[in-house]
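Data availability (excerpt). All sequences and predicted token strings are deposited with the supplementary files. A representative entry, Translation initiation factor IF-3, is shown inline so that the format can be inspected without opening the archive.
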Amino acid sequence: MKSKKKQKKDLINKEIRAERVVVIHGGDNLGEMPFFSALQYAKDKGLDLVKMSDSDVPICKVMDYNQEKYKQKKQKKEKVQALKEIQIRPNIGENDLMTKINRARKFLEQRHKVKIVLKFRGRELIHLDDNVKNVLNKFIENLNDVGKADSRVPKERARVSVIINPI
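Structure token line:
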């Protein structure tokens, strides 16, 4: 059975259950006041009363709730991962390689960096230099119009990597 995280729902306006609240508006602490006075103050300003913390006397902030939720959503979208990784093998088929190249092209057009990882197994390591030149150079040449190979990451045990930045 999967457990679902319970999302904390912000309490706004009449959803707040308290007799007295501490009110903050625009960084100024307006002090402790009866709940209905605080709600009336928020309505007079054309804003919402939002419960920020739960304590004996809840702390509430006077703000435009919809605008705040919009800003939070926008910030979440901006945190999208900027580095995409594509893994290939040295003896990859021609059509499979073109599929990976097209995938990398889409990422670069969306302004993401692409890390190409060439993975080796067993005896493939013997022909390391030939494989790197053939496969990685072909990959990089096909993406020259949308990206530029920035740097080769130092060879790890059985992996060679290249990072391609969008133009």
